[in-house]
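Feature request disguised as a bug: please show the residue count (331) next to AraC family transcriptional regulator in the output. Example input:
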Amino acid sequence: MVVYAGAMALDITGPIEVFDTANRLLGPSGTPYRTDFVSADAPLVRMSSGVVMEAAPLEAGRGPIDTLLVPGGWSLNDALGDQSLVSWISRAAARSRRVASVCGGSFLLAEAGLLDGRRATTHWAYSEAMACRYPQVTVDAEPIFVWDGPFVTAAGVSTGIDMALALVEADHGSALALETARFLVLFLKRHGGQSQYSAVLDAQLADHPPIRAAQEWILKNLDNPLPVAEIARQANMSQRNFARVFRREVGVTPGQYVERTRIARARELLETTDLTIGQIAGRCGFAATETFFRSFGRTLGLTPKEYRHRFQVISPAGLIDRHHEREGSTA
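Example output, currently without the count:
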């Protein structure tokens, strides 16, 4: 793993604890992970939180590398300007079986030209900046991690743990990955297609009063068709002007915003209720269950039923019952 002054400690320690725990659970018959730290700031590297890590010089990182891991951090701009670091990452990637990043670490991979023509993710707050800075990279702000060929990019901070669990699963199977997640007392082992945060939608609430009012009206009327013309009327604007101003203020078209909001509401209902999928589709404004399936799969890479099995919250009192699913219901 390459580290640098001002990197975020959790970007580093989160994945490392996953690998270390997997080693302890693996037993003597498996091939354990060995972690080496290298840095241009060796031997002692101070993280943004004040934690100090010991690392070897970059030159010590010679020979084949199984997984090259690059973290993000508040000092990312300084790291991007360090050409010796960026060049080392490029050379090290060439002798790595796979390359992974956490949070803003994907910027460093892109700066090294490693993500050209590939799909990647980063922290949702910086996805637009990454897309503008690296137009040759397809930046997807939704998933918690993206795997494209030998490159795995994780989103914000704690998603590095999810990514590391996926790497353990790829190396040693799902049983060890799940046992590692349990031992670390993680709430669940999340699929890479899960959206980063419903807070992404909150972050898109506009400052412009008519647009913000339209967004709030959308949230209150998700079970309705919501054509753009009707939303524009709520904002007291012409449809053409509304569409232009909405995209400028929110960053997506009104239609895209409506779809994302419907999916966010559907995720919440899948996680916290025992409503059937047909009922959820109706409550979220999808005219047909088939339309809901297509939109949900396109957004998250899972079917609604798969999502519910992975992420549904079961209350201690057992208020959510999956019996109807075991009996072959569409829920």
